[in-house]
Specification:
The chain has a single domain, classed as 3-Layer(aba) Sandwich (Rossmann fold), CATH 3.40.50. Helices cover 39% and strands 22% of the residues. It is globular and about 40 Å long. It binds NADP nicotinamide-adenine-dinucleotide phosphate (NAP). The site of NADP nicotinamide-adenine-dinucleotide phosphate has 19 residues, from helix 4 and strand 6. It comes from Amycolatopsis albispora. InterPro entries: NAD(P)-bd_dom, NAD(P)-bd_dom_sf. Pfam families: NAD_binding_10 (PF13460).
């Protein structure tokens, strides 16, 4: 995503949990800033300062409910509040398909979806211009640039690279403002798919 943003002329500040984690982004030409969502909220305000947009793609590595609540719920909420305090205008949240109907799946899936639902709803009620992108299961398949987008879709999959393209393209598509949508791999070029969201 850093590469895509830079290619489109954006100035990128990549939030990372440690300077070492930021080496890849720095090599591409992004500024890096330490921004651990589970750490000090004030540091997040500093990390957001001067930005026009925050894109939160963080997610707990561990599916345990305590980790998910720390990062995907409380961490995402902390990022929203930090963006508000820093005067950021726009916030894109990488959520998950079915986060808006979390009463399904096993215990771990439910707690994950519930964490996303809570932070997504805080974002929707914030002062920020928001977008909630809800991908299906993520894969490491190659970039296709083709997706399927709708308010709600059947269960499916999408590559991480195509999700990155959707997030970046959302910055140029006003229809994605103050809207949440599902996204899966598909047949329609990303820009056209976003321009036809109903
Ligand atoms: N995997 C799926 O099938 C799936 C499906 C739907 C939605 N999602 C969502 O999509 C997003 C990306 O998922 P993924 O599978 O690509 O996850 P991933 O590879 O594990 O990446 C998660 C990222 O979150 C960062 N992170 C973790 N804890 C953090 C913290 N406390 N503060 C700041 N950053 C933190 C990690 O940083 P480090 O590099 O330092 O570890 C990592 O860069 C997540 O929000 C996830 O919930 C995933």
């Amino acid at each position: 995503m850093v590469r895509l943003l830079l290619r489109q002329g954006h100035t990128v500040r990549a939030g990372v949990r440690s300077k070492r984690r930021g080496e890849a982004a720095a090599t591409l030409g992004a500024e890096t800033v330490v921004a651990d969502l589970a750490s000090f909220p004030e540091a997040l305000v500093d990390a957001c300062a001067g930005a026009d947009v925050v894109i939160n793609t963080a997610g707990a590595a561990d599916p345990d409910p305590s980790a998910v609540n720390l990062v995907d719920r409380d961490g995402a909420i902390a990022a929203v509040r930090a963006a508000e305090k820093a005067g950021v205008a726009r916030f894109l949240q990488l959520s998950a398909q079915f986060a808006d109907s979390p009463d399904q799946g096993d215990r771990l899936v439910r707690s994950f979806l519930l964490a996303k639902q809570v932070s997504d709803s805080i974002l929707r009620r914030s002062s920020l211009t928001w977008t909630v992108v809800r991908p299906g299961t993520l894969t490491d398949d190659p970039f296709t640039g083709r997706v399927k987008v709708a308010g709600h879709l059947e269960p499916g999959r999408i590559s991480r690279q195509d999700v990155a393209a959707v997030l970046v393209a959302s910055l140029n598509e006003p229809l994605t403002e103050n809207r949440g949508f599902d996204v899966l791999g598909g047949e329609v070029p990303v820009g056209a798919a976003l321009a036809s969201i109903e």
